[in-house]
Automatic annotation (TrEMBL):
Entry keyword annotation includes Transmembrane: yes
Organism: Lampropedia puyangensis
UniProtKB keywords: Cell membrane, Membrane, Transmembrane, Transmembrane helix, Transport
GO BP term, pick one: microcin transport
Name of the protein: ABC transporter permease subunit
Length: 340
């Protein structure tokens, strides 16, 4: 087991390097980098006409000032030097400093993380609280009208993108009916509210974003639970348990459900981490939630490369560790699994 863990940890290094190299090449050489954006803003502020800015163009900016701007953003060095300098920083977990916010990337992540945790935690909990019981009920009633109807609803929820559902919810429940707020996680004056009022205000704001994310996230878990339970129900030990006189409820929950949980439990780490960082970009942008998804979107639009690469490095590392934990959960749940 120790050798397997060590091998997986060593394999994370080339994976991280590959992800960072590909992303670095893409973001560093696309047009409209931070230097061009700085010059464009300077031109707009000075009322200078003209567009199509590039490193060759210095209309309204003298050459010395242009070189100073390049040095400010680190573009005075060759690309390979910038890449290896970035790797050295990331090895020390120094994610750099944001061009747009003029703050450390770590500080930005800490500021935006509570919003993403709120969305991810509620999405994860509600998804599994709905998916697992629903999957068991579908397996017990396999082939019935209930099974057919719930499968249809689950597939519809899975097929409709979360941001499309979010737009519908915003228009209907936020705009027309005005039952829920249109943006943010708290109301103005939240600091002056009592604890009960704060909890209610928070839940009032988080409802529509969470519904938008949950609608399509529990479909896979529901069908996985159903198929796992169906597979266990058909095995010989279930017939033996019934022959011994055990009731259907005991057979289901004490024997079948425990074994059927193996593929579900092993997916917990990846699903838990994915709920925080995956799929929230459009939802956070749509509902104007100041989280990691919105931060990533704005950093890409503004070519804030330290934020783009720093957050990508962190999320990739967390994802690789979560995948390793998921694989180790197989041994924890089912001791018969041997990696060697």
């Amino acid at each position: 087991m120790l050798g397997y863990i060590l091998k997986r940890l060593l394999l994370m290094v080339p994976t991280l390097l590959g992800v960072l190299l590909i992303t670095f090449v893409i973001v560093q050489f696309v047009p409209g980098g931070p230097v061009e954006q700085y010059l464009a803003e300077a031109r707009a502020g000075a009322g200078i006409e003209g567009g199509g800015l590039s490193y060759r163009g210095n209309e309204g900016i003298d050459a010395k000032r242009l070189e100073e701007i390049k040095a400010l953003y680190g573009f005075d060095k060759p690309a390979h030097e910038r890449f290896f300098q970035m790797l050295g920083q990331f090895a020390r977990f120094d994610l750099g400093r944001s061009f747009m916010y003029n703050k450390d990337v770590w500080q930005l992540i800490k500021e935006k993380l509570p919003v993403s945790i709120s969305l991810g935690l509620w999405t994860f909990l509600i998804s599994y609280l709905i998916a697992v019981p629903l999957g068991v009920a579908k397996a017990v009633r396999a082939g019935s009208r209930f099974d057919f109807a719930t499968t249809l609803l689950v597939l519809i929820g899975y097929a409709v993108p979360g941001f499309v559902l979010g737009v519908v919810l915003l228009v209907v429940f936020g705009g027309q009916l005005e039952w829920f707020p249109l943006r943010g996680l708290t109301s103005s004056g939240w600091e002056d509210m009592s604890i009960a009022q704060r909890v209610w205000d928070y839940l009032w704001h988080i409802t529509l974003p969470v519904v938008s994310m949950v609608a399509g996230s529990f479909a896979v878990t529901t069908l996985l639970t159903k198929n796992a339970v169906l597979e266990e129900i058909r095995k010989q030990y279930v017939l033996t348990a019934r022959a011994k006189g055990l009731g259907e409820r005991q057979v289901l929950w004490r024997h079948v459900f425990r074994n059927a949980l193996i593929p579900i439990v092993t997916g917990f780490p990846a699903a838990f981490i994915g709920a925080f960082f995956a799929g929230s970009l459009l939802i956070e942008t749509l509902f104007t939630l100041d989280g990691l998804g919105l931060l990533g979107y704005e950093s890409i639009i503004r070519r804030d490369y330290p934020v783009v690469l720093g957050t990508l490095y962190l999320f990739t590392l967390i994802g690789l560790v979560a995948k390793l934990i998921s694989d180790l959960c197989y041994v924890w749940v089912d001791p018969r699994v041997k990696f060697d």
